[in-house]
């Protein structure tokens, strides 16, 4: 690493890199992306077979609808029974039994609604979506493949954030004083220049035999075009 009038020599890296996998098991029904694809946030990437999950969702929906209808029916019954009670044609014990039945049906509806939420959640688990604008770095999914999400090494898809990068380097304690967090910095990649901010400054030094302590520093910057990790860059104060 050299510190010179032109700045600090460094390399470009992804700003964010994540690996995603399924939370349930099943066969891959759709594999919509390939390595190198640029995908927007929310884009569907891989989906499992969902026939059984959709049946479970339909069943949960029906149960919730029935529970709702039964509750409404019991509310009508309670209204009638209260009228009879007010007229003296119904005892307090009988009215209380109707109210207890109403409470039971209210709880039954809440349980049915929770089961419906769970069925929807499991159906959503069967589809992997991009959490941000990304490049597809790697994918372990193929059409028809069986995914066991509890396996020791389940298949994953690896994404890197698209549009934002880090310029990384190491600097000594004297130079570190000029590169505080939030300091405006220029990152040069070839003949292209990008404005950035020093965002990640190491607290502990990297010690190598016979050398002065150096600290890691990362500068975040934006670029609409792909810059591959490992690309050489120069970091300098704006």
Estimate percent helicity. 25-40%
- Would you identify the CATH architecture of the largest domain? Beta Barrel
Helix-strand sequence: EEEEEEHHEEEEEHEEEE
Largest sheet, described in full?
6 strands, antiparallel, barrel
- Strands, total number: 15
CATH class of the largest domain: Mainly Beta
Number of helices: 3
Query: By CATH's scheme, which homologous superfamily of the largest domain applies?
Result: Efflux pump adaptor protein, beta barrel domain
Tell me about this structure:
The chain is an alpha+beta fold and 238 residues long. The chain has three domains: 3-15 and 163-237, Elongation Factor Tu (Ef-tu), domain 3 (Beta Barrel); 17-49 and 126-160, RNA polymerase II/Efflux pump adaptor protein, barrel-sandwich hybrid domain (OB fold (Dihydrolipoamide Acetyltransferase, E2P)), CATH 2.40.50.100; 51-125. 31% of the residues lie in helices and 35% in strands. It is built from three helices and 15 strands. The chain has helices spanning 51-86, 92-125, 173-176, and strands at 3-4, 7-14, 17-20, 26-31, 38-39, 44-48, 127-129, 134-139, 146-147, 157-161, 164-172, 184-189, 192-201, 214-222, 232-237. Strands 2-11-14-13-12-15 form a six-stranded antiparallel barrel. Strand 12 (184-189) and strand 13 form a beta hairpin. Helix 1 (51-86) packs antiparallel against helix 2. The radius of gyration is 30 Å and the shape is elongated.
């Amino acid at each position: 690493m050299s510190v010179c009038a032109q700045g600090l020599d460094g390399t470009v890296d992804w700003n964010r890199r994540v690996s995603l996998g399924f939370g349930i098991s099943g066969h891959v029904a759709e594999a919509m992306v390939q390595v190198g694809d640029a995908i927007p946030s929310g884009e569907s990437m891989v989906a499992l077979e969902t026939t059984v999950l959709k049946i479970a969702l339909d069943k949960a929906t029906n149960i919730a609808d029935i529970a709702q209808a039964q509750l409404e029916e019991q509310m009508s019954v309670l209204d009638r029974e209260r009228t009879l009670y007010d007229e003296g044609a119904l005892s307090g014990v009988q009215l209380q039994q109707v109210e207890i039945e109403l409470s039971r049906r209210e709880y039954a509806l809440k349980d049915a609604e929770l089961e419906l939420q769970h069925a929807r959640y499991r159906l959503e688990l069967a589809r992997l979506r991009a959490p941000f604008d990304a490049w597809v770095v790697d994918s372990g999914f193929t059409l028809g493949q069986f995914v066991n999400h509890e396996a020791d090494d389940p298949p994953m898809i690896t994404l890197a954030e698209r549009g934002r990068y880090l310029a990384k380097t190491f600097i000594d304690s004297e130079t570190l004083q000029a590169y505080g967090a939030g300091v405006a910095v220029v990152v040069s990649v070839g003949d292209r220049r990008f404005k950035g901010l020093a965002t990640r400054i190491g607290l502990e030094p990297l010690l190598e035999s016979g050398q002065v302590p150096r600290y890691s520093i990362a500068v975040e910057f934006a670029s609409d075009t792909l810059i591959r990790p490992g690309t050489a860059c120069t970091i300098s104060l704006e």
